[in-house]
Every structure is written in C-alpha cells, then in structure tokens.
Design brief:
- This protein is mostly helical.
- It has a single domain, classed as Arp2/3 complex 21 kDa subunit ARPC3, CATH 1.10.1760.20.
- The protein has helices spanning about 15-35, 45-55, 60-75, 85-90, 95-115, 120-150, 155-160, 160-180, and strands at about 10, 10-15, 35, 40-45.
- Strands 1-2 form a two-stranded antiparallel ribbon.
- α1 crosses α3 and α6 crosses α7.
Length: about 190
C-alpha cells in the first residue's frame, strides 16, 4: 500500500481518503484537457493516471479513475477536448478510457502480490499500460469495423498505439519523479 495511507479504517473510509480521491479524479480530468500539439496530439491524461496511482496507492487511485469515468459517463466534460457522455465511452476510443481501470487493477494486484518497491511499481504501470493498449485497441477495432468495415491490426496500432508509446513512457517517468518528490508531503 502507498505511504499515503490506507483506504479503510475500522469505521470506514477516512475523510482524507475521500479528499485525495476527489483530487485524483479532478487531476485526471484537468490533465485530459491539456493537449500537447505534436504530429499526433496527445493529452496528459495517462500522466495523471500514473501519478494518481503512484501517489495515492492502488485502491484510492483506482477509485479516482472510476469516479473520473463515471463523471464522464453522466455527461460532465472531463474527457479530452472537454467532452463527456456515454457516447464517448462507447465510441471507438472509449476502450482506452476503460483501460485505465485495468491499469489501476493491475497496479493493485502487483502491490498485493509483490513487495512494494520502485521496480514493482514501474512494472505494474508498464504492464497496466500494455493491457490498457490491448483492451483499447480491441475495443477500437470492434467499433471501427462496425462503422467502417474491416481494417488490420497493424493499421489500428499505427493509429492508436505506436504514436503514443514513447510519449506515454515519458509521462510515466515524469509521474514517477514528481510523485517521489510529493509523496512525503501527503503521508496520512
């Protein structure tokens, strides 16, 4: 478990946990609005997912991701481009958003199965990102092919994964560095 404290006490969820979770969901929302203009524009959404998991721990971080997704599902414009609604979630790129939950669940699993250290945290995030890519790509192909006909896996990976690997690894590295510096401040 993260040094930021546990999710439950004898009396239930601590008020501080709720505050951290709300801030985590807000951070993911804000970072999804920040677009970095490159040949293939990308947001800081995955940075926030990594950061929230590292800083808040698997349980609180995953709850923050879930709240972010639920806010978007009910129409709050928390997704990229200030968008929201179930149409985004069930559209061609919605699988990548749902994939963030898998990243969180894998992070929880790794923290429970292995001794928590920097290598395990990085491994959990890398594997979580790979699962997010895989789920999102399968989802994209399903939705895209229903609307547009057949397309190949390599083509979809070229659109949806390959251009994002290096930026996502850079965002992961930044999340690791920044969370390490902030972690001592939020010990609960």
């Amino acid at each position: 478990m993260s040094s930021a404290g546990s999710v439950k006490t004898e009396t239930g969820v601590k008020a501080l946990d709720l505050i951290y979770i709300a801030i985590g969901a807000a951070l993911i929302s804000i970072c999804s609005w920040i677009s970095i203009p490159t040949a293939v524009p990308f947001t800081l959404q995955t940075f926030a997912v990594f950061f929230v998991l590292l800083l808040l721990g698997g349980e609180r971080g995953t709850i923050a991701i879930l709240i972010y997704i639920l806010l978007g599902a009910v129409g709050v414009p928390v997704f990229a481009g200030f968008s929201g609604g179930v149409g985004i979630l069930f559209g061609s790129t919605g699988g990548y958003i749902f994939g963030f939950l898998f990243t969180g669940l894998i992070y929880i699993l790794f923290m429970r199965l292995f001794k928590e250290n920097a290598v395990i945290k990085v491994a959990a995030l890398v594997i979580g990102l790979a699962v997010c890519y895989a789920f999102g790509t399968a989802w994209f192909m399903h939705v895209y092919m229903q609307e547009n006909g057949d397309t190949g896996l390599i083509t979809v990976l070229g659109w949806c994964v390959f251009p994002f690997i290096i930026p996502d690894l850079i965002k992961m590295a930044l999340a690791i560095i920044i969370s390490k510096r902030i972690e001592p401040v939020i010990k609960a």
